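STRUCTURE:
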């Protein structure tokens, strides 16, 4: 849908760069700048969100004009408007543009005090019958860990309807904490340099990520549909706390509220932060082809992750993991999801965008796989615990749906009952995975899952000192026949294409995020046929 030829796209990019650069130079006298780029997101049939941030205010509120045009040179302007911003929203500007025709590509820019922003691309959702839709699916972009080459790759594509960001758009850590070992060498030291815990901190961190040229290019080139995962607030967060929040950092409710406020200011997402009532679960319809249903598995309803210990009996562990009271989405969101699936009935595909692994993943016995004489960034204590727990082939990752087994069973039962062709997309694990999703004890799958790896964040093989490369992957795939693909070493993105007959995921993986030079290869392609979900994924 909405394809343009590669040559036209190159011309568009040329116009965008030259026009943008020239216009920025033309009013050097103004104090204002667009240092954090522009973005569009949350498309509707008749509109979308456009976003920017004004730098250079000395404390006064700033009036900003915006325009939407049908062409890259901004000569056929369809709509203009103005908006003001001030310190109460960190000089970010978010406009909900409406009254536009459906299924079209548009161009937009902002103007402040005669200074023009770069020009970006936005789209309205199509209606009726469409041939195909294509999405770039990403997650887990730790700025200090590496370059955002993945974003650059996506920016260069001219056949993407939207970028779906499944969270960990920012990370909260300071220098010396998680995945910051190379930050100084890469000139990507986190700002602020310490862990972010307050509104001012989170704003600064978002601002740093949006100075990245590859992030700016991706946002300018495509609309984004984003949900948060844990690190937009704090590691392994749930509605009442987080693994990485302690009492010296103040009250959890304050930190959560401030992190969410900064997210709503700095992301091209519709609406405003509303404290504990903030909702990011929402739906998008691409004509009769698909409904995209985005969920919040973190903040709105998640109960605390279960904790297992090596001295628990098998029965106790089973009881803990299958506790019906432990929910992932919360009852309210579960009810909304059922209604959303009913609304999606007229569409061929129901794509569920959510943060964490839904497939079951039992752990292979780690003892023969790991070489404990080699260094690991995991503590010896955690490695010993993991090895001990893995001996009985339990799931080890209890922040995923494996820690919420009863809630998962309910979700899969809802998908079986209410969805015709459900496809789940996920992230968070920094690993490429595909799997068939089964109700407990049933042989035929009721849905399939495509998991995108990280943009930069380190994967399993960066932590676990394997005796042989690929040993952990091979043993995991052997023990979990529901999983059809796994790649733990390389960072990248998932390209998801849907047609009336097939849904296809392609994993595009990079050989490095630590050097400026890199290459990208398509590592795997798996499809599922419409009307034949119970046949599961196949190589295509
Ligand atoms: Fe992550």
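SEQUENCE:
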């Amino acid at each position: 849908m909405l394809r343009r030829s590669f040559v036209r796209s190159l011309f568009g990019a040329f116009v965008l760069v030259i026009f943008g650069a020239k216009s920025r130079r033309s009013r050097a006298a103004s104090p204002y700048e667009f240092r954090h780029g522009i973005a569009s997101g949350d498309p509707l049939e008749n509109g979308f969100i456009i976003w920017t941030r004004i730098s250079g205010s000395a404390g006064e509120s700033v009036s900003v004009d915006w325009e939407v045009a049908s062409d890259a040179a901004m000569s056929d302007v369809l709509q203009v408007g103005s908006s003001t911003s001030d310190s109460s929203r960190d000089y970010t500007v978010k406009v909900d543009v409406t009254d536009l025709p459906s299924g079209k590509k548009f161009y937009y820019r902002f103007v402040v005090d005669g200074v023009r922003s770069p020009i970006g691309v936005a789209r309205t959702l199509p209606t009726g019958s469409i041939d195909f839709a294509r999405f770039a699916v990403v997650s887990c972009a730790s700025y200090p860990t590496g370059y955002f080459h993945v974003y650059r790759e996506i920016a260069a594509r001219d056949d993407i309807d939207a970028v779906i960001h499944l969270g960990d758009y920012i990370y909260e850590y300071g220098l010396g904490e998680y995945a910051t070992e190379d930050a100084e060498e890469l000139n990507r030291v986190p700002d602020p340099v310490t862990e972010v815990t307050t509104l001012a901190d989170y704003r600064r961190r978002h601002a740093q990520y949006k100075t990245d040229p590859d992030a700016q290019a991706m946002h300018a080139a495509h609309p984004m549909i984003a949900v948060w995962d844990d690190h937009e607030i704090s590691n392994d967060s749930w509605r009442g706390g987080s693994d990485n929040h302690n009492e010296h950092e103040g009250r959890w409710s304050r930190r959560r509220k401030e992190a969410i406020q900064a997210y709503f200011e700095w992301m091209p997402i519709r609406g405003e932060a509303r404290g504990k009532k903030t909702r990011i679960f929402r739906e998008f319809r691409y004509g009769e082809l698909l409904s995209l249903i985005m969920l919040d598995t973190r903040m709105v309803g998640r109960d605390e992750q279960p904790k297992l210990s090596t001295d628990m009996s098998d029965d106790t562990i089973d009881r803990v993991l299958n506790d019906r009271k432990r929910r992932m989405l919360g009852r309210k969101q579960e009810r909304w999801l059922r209604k959303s699936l009913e609304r999606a009935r007229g569409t061929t595909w129901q794509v569920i965008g959510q943060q964490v692994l839904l497939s079951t993943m039992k752990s292979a016995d780690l003892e023969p796989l790991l070489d404990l004489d080699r260094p690991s960034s995991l503590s010896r204590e955690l490695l010993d615990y993991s090895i001990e727990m893995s001996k009985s082939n339990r799931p080890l990752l209890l922040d995923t749906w494996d820690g919420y087994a009863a809630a998962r069973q309910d979700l899969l039962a809802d998908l079986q009952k209410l969805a015709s062709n459900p496809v789940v997309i996920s992230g968070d694990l920094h690993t490429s995975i595909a799997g068939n999703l089964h109700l407990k004890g049933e042989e035929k799958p009721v849905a399939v899952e495509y998991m995108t790896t990280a943009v930069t964040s380190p994967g399993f093989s960066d932590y676990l000192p394997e005796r042989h490369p690929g040993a952990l992957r091979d043993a995991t795939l052997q023990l979990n026949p529901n999983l059809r693909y796994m790649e733990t070493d390389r960072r990248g993105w998932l390209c998801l294409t849907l047609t009336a007959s097939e849904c296809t995921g392609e994993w595009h993986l990079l050989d490095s995020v630590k050097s400026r030079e890199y290459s990208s290869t398509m590592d795997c392609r798996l499809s599922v046929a419409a009307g034949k979900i119970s046949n599961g994924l196949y190589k295509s």
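REMARK: The radius of gyration is 23 Å.
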